[in-house]
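Look over this entry.
=====
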Amino acid sequence: MKLFHSIQSRITLTVLSFGLLMILFNNWRNQDWLVDRRLARLEQEATETGSRLAGLLQHLSRKQQQRAAELEMAYVSLSPDVDLGLVCNKEGVVTCATHMQWQQMDVLKTPLADEWRRHASVLQTMVPVFAWNAEKTSLVAMVPFFETYESTSRAAVLIRYDATLAIEDVREEAWQESLRQAGVLLSLCLLLWYALYEFITRRVRRVVEILRSASSKDGILMTLEGNDELSMISEEFTGAVTKLRRAENMVLEAAEQERRKIGKDLHDDLCQRLSAIKMKAGVVQGMLPEKDGKIAALVGQMAEDLSESTVIARSMAWGLAPVGIENHGLKDALENVLRFAEKSYMVKCSLDYSDLSPALTGSSQELLFRIAQELVVNACKHSKPDVINITVRMEDSCAVLSVIHDGTPFAESAETQGRGMGLILMSQRLRTLSATLERTVESGERDFSIAIVRIPLKNP
């Protein structure tokens, strides 16, 4: 999922995974530690209970208080860890037990027979024994004592403790503690997720919006609020884009100056030369005698061709250097472009114009003229239209330029793959005007390609 590809989710999942691993490791270590501690406590309890019970039974047997001894054994059996227990003399007769039916029975006939055989030597050494089985799930405590004042009257307390329940309780307690830790970890991860969203993800998305806005045709520059690293990146990026746009405007202005220079040179030099040659051709035609009529006709044709070439050259010069847009207006400049298209590409052209001089400055009108010129020339070159219409109007709070023709639609692949200098300059002019360019195709009896330029107007 896309959600788990974000830095926010990766950091949170990493912390969550590491925390769960630490909780599992801590659970495994705590279980061993808690089990060892619980077994040590059980062994200490067996030692204390066995020693206390042996001393107490010795006292009660000497006073022949059998009933009191049975009560003591009953109290011992109340412990949840005590499995079985009995008191047996050296002859192997059970004198007292946690189960009343064992009294006066042979100890070898009770469930504790194996433990008695294993530790019967205690009656000889008179040293208490506390022994675990191999799995450490059962503890046997056998504590000897003297029933009477004679050294031969020996007996022993035999108690078997079952540690299974205690171990299960310890492990359950360890798992409950792990679950509590997991709950705390999950809460902290949710808090981390929210903190990352608030301080990083949301602000990174805002930075991305700023980058996209700066790279769009609208060209609106913004900076991220705050004083953190992302704000510094945003400020640096805005400064870099500002410098880049300033450089683009300088390149655009240099291109415009070069256009004006070339247009002026065409008008002042080439057009004048063509006019002079045309006049000379007329003079030569008049000097030829009537018998050279064919030569005179050919010279006349040369004069006409020179006249048409002069008109085209002047149109090109005026297109390169539209001197006096501020004086003659954008309408005259656009009409000259259309006249050039009609003469050079044999296209029928029309203009629907609404005055934009109150809304656009002279430099903005010149940029709009260049955009219209590029759209018209591109349409004539690549689309081979029969009809071109230019519309200039106000629409809401925008100045709108529409170029409509019936030629082949301008393919996006060609636009993207072959981005020439004209298209690059047009994109720069669009950014300078904060304008947008939309291309659509309207189908009917004939398909019409429509290019719409929208220039947002600033509030006064």
